[in-house]
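Hello,

I think I submitted the zinc ion job twice by accident. Can you confirm which output corresponds to this input? Input:
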Amino acid sequence: MTTRIYADDIAIDVTRKKIKNIHLKVLPPNGEVRISAPKWVAKRALQDFARSKLDWIRAQQLKISQQPRATVPAFVDGEMHYLFGRPLTLRVEDTGRVPLVQRQDATLVLRVAPGSDCDTRRAAVYAWYRRELETALQPLVVYWQRQLGVSVERISLRSMRTRWGSCTPARRAIRLNLELAKTPLHCLEYVLVHELVHLIEPSHNHRFVLLMDRFLPLWRAWRDELNETQLSQY
Ligand SMILES: [Zn+2]
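Support: Only one job matched these inputs. Its output is below.
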């Protein structure tokens, strides 16, 4: 159950939960304020609590507003791109006929025809991301199928806006977000294991959590890392 309170001009959404303490959060990207509170704390007490934290709330909101916003890549020379968490500087050379993408140390070389547009460049870079992701996935899929004793029928890679992966147990099919080529490898491994565990347990119940704990004890940290990554951040 969510209600709204105010501290000065700041609106705060309050969620009542079965918890012992009051938790206050200021969330990116808009500096939204949320409180989780035990059911027995009175609204008045929450308002007093929020008011006592006003300086802290405003400081957090300022910090968030000063963080650089995600920008849409234009695939121009000097732009930063990521491969498995490693930053690469894009170097565009307009000397090729067929687009070619190659990594040279910390440089991502994109060879395109003179006057190529953003869509052509993006398509070339994403085709390269797809190959890199397929290569990285191969040993992981072999290893984790054996560890978990499952077999997957089909793994497809797609750009998705809202999720990192999904699983259709009935078809033994897994879908992974192409954007995982940009996050650190352990994040890719976490999403893969999560979806493979769904072949054993389709829902996120207690059994699912036990399986994750057993096979990938650090999964919570990696999930949190991914959740802090906005899909459009890279
Ligand atoms: Zn799931």
